[in-house]
Amino acid sequence: MADNEAQELQNRTREDEEHILPNNNLLLVFFGLMMTSFLVALDLNIVATALPSIVAELGEGQNYSWVANAYLISTAALCPAYGKLSDVFGRKRILYPSIMIFLIGSALCGAARTMNWLILSRALQGVGGGGILQLVQTVISDIVPLEVRGTYGSLVPAIWAVAGLIGPLLGGALSDHLSWRWCFWINLPTGGLAGLVLFFSLNLNPHQGKSFQEHVREFDFLGVFFLIGGVLSLMMGLSQSQDGWNKPATIGPLVSGVVALILAVLVEGRTTRSPIIPPRLFKTRTTAIILITELFHSFAYYCAMFYLPLYFQILRASATKSGLLVLPYSVLASVTAAGGAIITSKLGDYRLVTWSCYVCSAIGYGLMSMLNERSSSAAQILFLTIAGLGIGGGFVSPMIGLQAAMPQKEVSTSYATFMLFRYLGSTIGLSIGQTVWTGVVQGRLRKMPGLNLDISSAALANSARHIQSIEVLAFRDCQVLRAYTKGISDIWLLLTPILCLGLIWYLALFMKKYSLKRRIVRAED
């Protein structure tokens, strides 16, 4: 009874909170915001199918996962700071430079002549891409009421659906018929147009500026130092895990990262300055549940986005065809994300969509673990469809729940924390996925006497696309091909109980419902 009364009091308090909406031409502003989101969405979907072609030209297959990890590491490392910096300096002063940095990184990626050059450029891209993703959602929360934010916010996953539809196909077509470099250069005209539209159309509430000295006095430098250092170190360690979890290059960063994050938590909980991460996020049960389960969700999603194209290319699909074959997963995930956001707004409850997400995705990933080199096209399409339908529900609805549980003034820092957990889960997923795949393939190939095949980590990534050219037919058609596909199916087998754990975490801890209603005030012209 006491819990129910406290919940009702919290809901009344949230409903009485005032949200001042600036006047905007929402059609024009959302066109600019969606074009900006399209930059990042297209980049992710194009690069996933172009990776084998990139490795084939630049070599260094042992760094296959670093092309993705470098982007995620730089994004996640700065993610805690984006929300606070946008509060301090204003949204536009962070959004516009983020677009410019992303475009510069894209140009450098397209010009890369070595794998190290590409990886460093991807890291620069991640700095800009992280700012774009963070600020687009923050701006939406500034200009749209929470009660209908799911409907408007559904445009973001809708854009991801479009990118998911054309990205893999475009990435494969450019790689096969022109050059993988155009997968990055194509961002330049899109980004330029998006930046111009936002510059001339976006109106926000006047920023309550303070003097530089006041910003310095209030900014939590120690907290941001430990957070960025901890995240960077932890993700570096995870990315090195493909060479073995017992190596100093893996253990050192992991240990130092965990220690730094523990110190960051202590600092954030005790600081008298304005914290980078609101402590109430971890003190409120619902928000804590949402953040933890976001790790599970992003772990599963990003593994699929990077290892499904590899699975199909192992089975002799070209980059273009592998992009087409991944569409049942990527497009349906985006469509379900948009549909789930609309349902959340209509029902005023974010819990049903989230629960359904974990049930359906756990079933889908369990079925995907049965895929091998002999699986029919019908089975591939069906299993990927179920997994995509499930995983999409975890993108927007939990984020709306997080915003509903937090005051409006902390929305930007709350979303930054949500995205931090998403990127951490992504990097953990890619690193563990690489470890599982490499370990399984190496273990099976070592048991094949007389097989003249380099099974080092670098060689496996390089040879995956050309596995069909192995000369010994008996090995090529059976044991070797089985080893490569078994490594990928074991990734899905690992992810199935993780998704089940996410569902159990939601249900066992009884995530609460917070009202989506707020008192709206229109800003004067």
TrEMBL record:
PROSITE patterns: MFS
Predominant location category: membrane
InterPro entries, per the entry: MFS (IPR011701), MFS_dom (IPR020846), MFS_trans_sf (IPR036259)
Record localization: Cell membrane
Domain Major facilitator superfamily (MFS) profile: 29-514
Topology versus the membrane: Multi-pass membrane protein
Coiled-coil ranges per UniProt: none
Name of this protein: Major facilitator superfamily domain-containing protein
Species the sequence originates in: Roridomyces roridus
